[in-house]
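Q: I'm writing a short methods note and want an example of a predicted protein-small molecule complex. Could you take the sequence and the SMILES for adenosine-5'-triphosphate and return the bound structure as tokens? Please keep the output block clean; save any remarks for afterwards.
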Amino acid sequence: MTVKHDLELVDVTKRYGPNVAVDAIQHRFQPSSYTCLLGPSGCGKSSTLRMIAGHESVTEGSILLSGRDISDLPPARRGTAMMFQNYALFPHLSVRDNIAFSLKMKGVEPKERHTKAGEMLELVDLTILADRLPDQLSGGQQQRVALARALITRPEVLLLDEPLSALDPFLRIRMRGELKKLQKELGISFIHVTHGQDEALALADEIVVMNDAVIEQAGPARDVFNAPKTRFVAQFMGGHNVIALPNGCFAIRTDAVTVTAPKKGTLDAQVTAVEYQGTHVSLLSRISGDQEVTAMVPEAIYFTNPHHPGDQIGLHWDAKNLHQLTA
Ligand SMILES: Nc1ncnc2c1ncn2[C@@H]1O[C@H](COP(=O)(O)OP(=O)(O)OP(=O)(O)O)[C@@H](O)[C@H]1O
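A: Understood, no commentary inside the block.
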């Protein structure tokens, strides 16, 4: 049964000439949830987002919102709104007029526009900057204007294309907290395109990992991180080793590998590199078959018995932490 404001992709394909950018993907986005579309450059995530927004045509398949086929509707009639990577603010318009712009285009009366823009200014905490021009704002403030401008149309789904990429790392972390809070407050769905795993893990209720025009894995953030199904997902999410064992190929988290002196019941390994990372020390070692294994050792434990490149060590893990990979 279709739930209210449920967005569904049914066999959605995008071709640019002979190139397949998105290949018959299927997914149902949960209502009122924060989803991150995650994948490397060129995997098709922006094309997917643009098709949902209506800025790109669907070559095959359909997009349903609340059970209604929106595939051929113009962007303004879909119930979606998009926030762009570079914010695309009008430089000659004040913050208030930028936010109210789409209502003006729709022919909404000035008084009502003003009231609604005021509500949005309050929502993103920019009331006192309402009369400024975009170039008189910081990057984070510009981002909030862009958010307010997208939200004033009262979308059922907000689409965000790399919304944090223009910000410095410190502000990026602060703004991602604000995005998450806003999504929970508004109770609408956010679909956020990113190529950053940490960003996706920090924000998403659900992560959809794309690779090479298809969805490799989708699920709650914790499941995707803890139980990657394919080699690609394990390596792209990071924090895992992919190891070929006699009974198959497995992923194991780097912090689930323990390091001891070589002894019975451990796997012989030779340390190849040691990297101090603050809370942890990353210990890279080589096992038989020329395979490399990383162990993330808590720094206090590492320094009670430090190892150095060339040292022989023993590696150990609990078999229940191994996840068999399907591809
Ligand atoms: N307008 C276009 N014309 C032709 N090919 C395109 C067009 N837009 C995207 N592509 C191609 O489609 C594929 C998917 O592109 P898309 O922008 O969706 O990927 P992406 O995952 O969002 O990448 P990025 O993170 O670099 O933005 C790429 O191979 C890209 O070169």
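A: Remarks, as requested: Residues 16, 19, 21, 39, 41-47, 195 surround adenosine-5'-triphosphate (CB under 6 Å). Residues 17 and 179 are 36 Å apart (CA to CA).
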